[in-house]
């Protein structure tokens, strides 16, 4: 039986010989000392010598004194469990005993999640290409969903700093948060929040602020939160009863605040009464303004309740539940500073951003007519400024217009990153229109996390000017939203001998406009910009450049090929050819550059950059878009067909038909009135989300 000296509680009586092995540990060697104790028995009736009598009396006194000391020491070890005392250097003692009956310590296995609850699939793939279209439950998956362990993982944290109580903090004494926890159900996110609250309660008293979006699109989610709160607070009570968290007076206080155009404190002051919290959330009214001033609400919360930190020493946790990115981006910097100075952590349960875009859509069913309408909402972007060019794809296939970014909106993600919280991406209302196209693994996206250190555009531009490649990417993304390419031109032309040249010219004009837009965007990239790629260390900037520049070059090649192909048709065909062998033209993609031969090197560069994206960023939105661009080659070929004109109809002889007798009836005295038409349903009043 081996134990440290501070836990040694074993006592043994011996009537024969005993050996005590004492081991002393050191860095270089281990020396074992053997002490043999011999108990001498005096024969009955024998008188011990005088010195033995004196020794026996002294020995008895020392034995009694030793046993009293041993009992007091043992009782002190048992009773003073919570009293800290000095621990000497580690010393291990081994005692050899014949029988050993250790007491088994009862282990309490407490699970935070209700076992009666249904298991939720915690990772879903988001492809916003299908948003606004009819939803199909049997859409094909590009990759099978990955099973996920539902056990609560250990909290990922960087090196923590001790936060002094009752003081205003420096902006630098903050642990960086986690901006991408993966796509999970809202119930799973609330369970993880419960775990976070329990962890904080082990350290100090806590104030939890439930900051809820009051818009109509989140009414169902607020009901889910209210239902789940009963389980959350019962779990926290159970943890306290099992002494897994300290039992303190009013250890947990909670407040409920809603926001829309204005901020409303549903609970005037934080309370420890769960019934008041539940009733406050249930009584929340929808905000019809369509505004979501999230960061303004956070500043109001910190102004009113920061004293719970500075005066009472409580940990402040602000839990934001929303389905949009917010309408008051300029206020997010002030909200972050106020949270950091008071040591408040922000946790967000919200949507994923749309990759490279600001707007997404919510499917809304109007009660007036039962029809579904797609209402725009703000969901992005995931970066401080747009960094991806906005280009349509050519030929048949998905446009991936509303592809998931894998990260939350920039301002909300920066809020949790700078305050030490966590962003939980959930598939709430705004996610219903997204269709699965593969798995965006959280770990695969980790190297492509945006840079959240910029709070204003001015600071961002100062940073970009130091990096020519990044500045060019941002400028190209800006120009692509001003100079819009028209995408795929007409690929099927039916012509006649009279109009075939005019038809080809009209097709050229369409692609010429796209060609002009693409070339104007390419002007954002200075000459020899490819050389800057070798200097770029950020994986996100490397892939964004390769994808944007590669797609622009690919579409430039396609425009030139189509334009030159139309010119070839006008110059090589005659009216006789149109009447006999070629009056139907079908444009198809080709691996060979057939017409604009000067674009061969450009096509090779585009293909190289797009393949680099697929190789270096597999399983990411960049790879999805690069693969879609490479789905069709950049060259063009024309399939010429001839459809014989239909024969002219022969003229028919006019045969006069005999007149048929008509039956004349007496007019009715009463005319029947036509049935009134049913009234039109009222025009639905679409809410502002």
Automatic annotation (TrEMBL):
Residues 207-350 form the VWFA domain. Residues 640-689 are annotated as: Disordered. SUPFAM superfamilies: vWA-like. This is VWFA domain-containing protein. Residues 670-680 have a biased composition (Basic residues). The lineage of its organism: unclassified sequences, metagenomes, ecological metagenomes. It comes from hydrothermal vent metagenome.
